[in-house]
Amino acid sequence: MKKIISLAAVAMMVMVAWAQQPVITFEKTTHDFGQINEVDGKVSTVFSFKNEGMVPLVLSEVRASCGCTTPKWTREPVEPGQTGNITVTYNPNGRPGRFQKTITVTSNAVSSPARIYIKGEVIPKTAKPVDNYPVKMGKLGLKANTVDFGAVKMGTRMERTVEFSNQTKDTLRLTCRVAEPYIYASASLDKQEVAILPGTKGEIHFVLFENCPVYGPVETTVYVVINGEENLSDEFAVRLKADVQEDFSSLNEQQLADAPIADVNSDLSLGTFVAGKRGKSSFHVANVGTDMLLVRRIVCGDPNITVTPVQRIKSGQKGTFKVIVNAQEAGAYTSEITLITNDPKEPVRHIVLRWSVEK
Q: What is the pLDDT of residue 86?
């Protein structure tokens, strides 16, 4: 009888805890655009959601899996029983064929983060000579202004090219400038400066060096300089992206058995802070494996959060990660950080951080 009462009490505590958080429910979690014509341009759909909890619902971030998908969402708190919207717009330009995109919704709800999806098929437009170079940089046409190297093993050299064309009646002089940080990437032409005659084509060569020192997502920018007129705006920028991963393929069975294991909760509460002030908190990462756990990097895109990691954690010990919270207006907040370690079984961990701010 005591056990039954204890279990009932635990269940009641869980129900009370859930009641103190908002609950987000969507009318739909997937939208199929079906076949859409590339020539018709952007398409949009609306995902409606309802707060079925007992406290206000706040969406802190809505992030798409690629730049071709743009979300806009209800910014103000959604009261219990009320509804909000997320409008998702997809740009099919230069993206023929089938697509499926993920939109991650981070909020103060019980089930955060939630995910919604769009999919469909882009029917390509009839190609014209100028359409082969959809990116316009002044008088120059490029086939793309993003170079994604994808997943790259640490220590691997990767190369890509982007074709360009001069479809004007003028001769264009072309050079490239790599912005900071430039230590791990380069951009070059066949010569330091290339004269592009009217109607001719060429290629810009991009390299991600094997000595790239950064784990996880890396990004830098290459500016295309035309006729010596340097313009450091987005119009003349080519973005270089990569996801640098540790290579565990050479580990034998014994090394895998002795490998470090990172143990950390995927959902953490930082506590309550005072509006307009900086607050301090922390969380722990334990090494339940044998070898030394090395923290390669903490990736945090939230400007209101600063995480200082412990770089090395011995077997059987915990590392304390210090967190500084820049407390803004009163409310409930949620953010996501990425922990990258040398744990070969799960080197990348996504951790949700929650906190509240009071006046």
A: 96
